[in-house]
């Protein structure tokens, strides 16, 4: 039997919506936003010559003929080449971060249903594919680690939401004995179960927090280089502010995750396992009861255990979900899809999820160690996740970005 804290409190239940198994809904048409001015771009990579109105690929590399057809029909024909701003002097790159050159790219994802390893979710909220232009920025090379978050807590005395006792104001109908600090934890069932009820493998665990990711009897001793988890969006934003950074917009996150490529299914290409090699920490085996750990890890892994993408970013797929700054709406892409290009989008003004209309949700990206084609393939680079901004779990973390301050002409001359 599930604990009453899970059923009545619901403190972090909605954090799991990123991987919740539900049928995709047809998106409603939304009036597009006003057109914005196109930014002049300069190619700094080899340019593929084709008409500007043509797709960036006739047959995506790494896909079978049947998968290629499914890819193109599922939205892939809308991808255009990525173009980049002319590099400018930016000064020294902050420690632990990577410089992401600004540019213009096609944002969104295809319907992967029917493709090898494509899973069963249509990913309707990831379309229409649309053009976005971004300024340059820096991004953390890895997800924020336990060591880094501990330094923040030590310096500020910050207490995460999971460590705070839920209030009567938030949960007026919950019994007093259930108003206990804690968070959501993945607990593998002892046998195979139907995948129509995620409460069979998630539970609200009293005493679960960032120092005790799976409950009070667990800890992070010896795990300084693991991603910090059990942090909600509010916690992640507080850390970012203290560090002189911020959380990435959803557009910045996807642009960086693509590593300069256009329209690929994954951050590393179009094959889940190129040459038979695992490229991310995801779930293999029988979901949710047995993670076989074929990729080398069962559960969360330390950072930098898999190859970096084209921008030098590690674990941009799998391992831990990553918070973005944007509010989540499934119809947001429709509101900007008629723009020739949208400059530096910050996401919608508010949140709406038809699955839980009254819950304020932020975007999550990248998937986690629990993602699998048996249930959730949101490690695919263009796909989207979502979660209550005050909810946490043991598979959600974050990384930060920082604005680039242009180097003055005098300083450049002195160099």
Q: Helix amount, in percent? A: 10-25%
The Cα radius of gyration reads 21 Å
Number of domains: 1
N- to C-terminal separation? 67 Å
Major sheet: 4 strands, mixed
Cross-sheet strand order for the largest sheet? 1-3-4-11
Number of strands: 15
Oligomeric nature of the chains: single chain
User: In CATH's first tier, which class applies?
Assistant: Alpha Beta
Helix/strand order, N-terminal first? HHEEEEEHEEHHEEEHEEEEEH
SS field, number of helical segments: 7
> Can you identify the CATH superfamily?
paralog of FGE (formylglycine-generating enzyme)
Question: What does this protein structure show overall?
Answer:
The structure is a single chain. The termini are far apart. 13% of the residues lie in helices and 14% in strands. The protein has 7 helices and 15 strands. The chain has helices at 4-9, 65-73, 146-156, 233-242, 250-257, 332-336, 409-414; strands at residues 83-84, 97-100, 103-107, 130-134, 137-140, 182-186, 202-206, 285-286, 290-291, 321-327, 342-343, 361-365, 385-388, 396-397, 401-403. The strands form 5 sheets. A 4-stranded mixed β-sheet has the order 1-3-4-11, covered by helices on one side. By secondary structure, the chain is an alpha+beta fold. It has one domain: paralog of FGE (formylglycine-generating enzyme). The longest helix is centred in the middle third of the chain and has 11 residues, at 146-156.
